[in-house]
């Protein structure tokens, strides 16, 4: 069995493009899987934070400046948007690998 696996790897090692696409797909799959786990935990933490803020605001222990908070959030969203545009330009140079990584990320995110 090990000899068959070694021969299979040797056959595909001759094709660097195929190896690059496969590696990108596998990397994307694990990124998607990890991102899905991260989103679940982030949702739980955000819910706990919002519940804590609501409790503290209801008891009068906390007074928030909503205008300043909104300005900070808008500034952060603008920075994230500029970063996403830069990432898009970077990935367009690596389109075949980015496509395979995107497919892997999609299927990794869907994996339960």
Tags for this model:
88% helix, 112 residues
How would you sum up this structure, described in words?
The protein is mainly alpha-helical. It has a domain of 72 residues. Helix content is 88%, strand content 0%. The chain contains four helices and no strands. α2 crosses α4. The protein is elongated and about 70 Å long.
Itemize the secondary structure elements and their pairings.
Elements: H1 2-13, H2 16-59, H3 66-92, H4 95-110
Helix pairs in contact: 2-4
Percentage beta strand: under 5%
Global mean pLDDT? 78
Helix content: over 70%
Rg, please? 22 Å
Summarize the structure.
With 112 residues, this protein is mainly α.
């Amino acid at each position: 069995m090990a000899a068959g696996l070694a021969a299979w790897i040797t056959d595909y090692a001759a094709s660097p493009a195929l190896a690059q696409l496969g590696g990108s797909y596998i990397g994307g799959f694990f990124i998607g899987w990890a991102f899905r786990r991260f989103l679940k935990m982030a949702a739980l933490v955000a819910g706990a934070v919002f519940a804590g803020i609501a409790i503290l605001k209801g008891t009068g222990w906390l007074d928030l400046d909503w205008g300043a908070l909104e300005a900070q959030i808008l500034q952060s969203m603008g920075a994230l948007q500029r970063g996403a545009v830069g990432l898009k330009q970077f990935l367009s140079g690596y389109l075949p690998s980015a496509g395979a990584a995107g497919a892997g990320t999609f299927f990794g995110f869907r994996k339960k």
